[in-house]
Amino acid sequence: MTVNGQFPGPTLEINEGDSLIINLINRGRYNVTLHWHGVRQMRTGWSDGPEFVTQCPVRPGQSYRYRFTVAAQEGTLWWHAHSSWLRATVYGALLIRPRDATKYPFHVQPARELAPILLGEWWDMNPVDVVRAATRTGAAPNISDALTVNGQPGDLYNCSSQDTAVFPVKSGETNLLRFINAALNTELFVSLAGHNMTV
Prior knowledge:
Shape: globular
CATH superfamily: Cupredoxins -  blue copper proteins
Organism: Oryza punctata
Mean pLDDT: 88
Largest sheet: 4 strands, mixed
Number of strands: 11
Family: Belongs to the multicopper oxidase family.
Distance between the termini: 32 Å
Strand content: 25-35%
Protein name: Laccase
Number of helices: 1
CATH architecture: Sandwich
GO molecular function, one term: copper ion binding
Radius of gyration: 18 Å
Low-confidence stretches: none
InterPro entries: Cu-oxidase-like_N, Cu-oxidase_2nd, Cu-oxidase_fam, Cupredoxin, CuRO_1_LCC
CATH topology: Immunoglobulin-like
Order of helices and strands: EEEEEEEEHEEE
């Protein structure tokens, strides 16, 4: 499953204090919910998204409207499916900018912000089937067939686009990078070859 035919799904960019209204129309074959990972749901718990915890799943052919305000939060969050392992392909970035975009909480203000970097996994079969197979045996689910950066598995795979994840930078310039680990079953570590990185 994907969102609007995109993998990863669309990046949502908002300012602190903004209200979001998201209309989910499930055209897939599985039940699905969306979870706004890290968003404090103040009096809007029904928009939090965990299936059978804060809401019933949205069945195929049905729709649901998420409505909430992001207050007193800034930074890099993300949204993802919260049903089975649909999170393997249904996810995206949620960027919450400060009300005053010139006041990031860094010692050195970034010269520019690069596109978010979403790290994920790819299976050569339906991830839902991977989990079902594991529950039959009691073993852990199989590891993924590839890791992805912004939905692309890299130069070793013919299905990757030519511009897998290229971010040109200028020497001596400070850039803001936003990393999101959307992997389901793997811990990922990140470094930037030949560059200093401050977290």
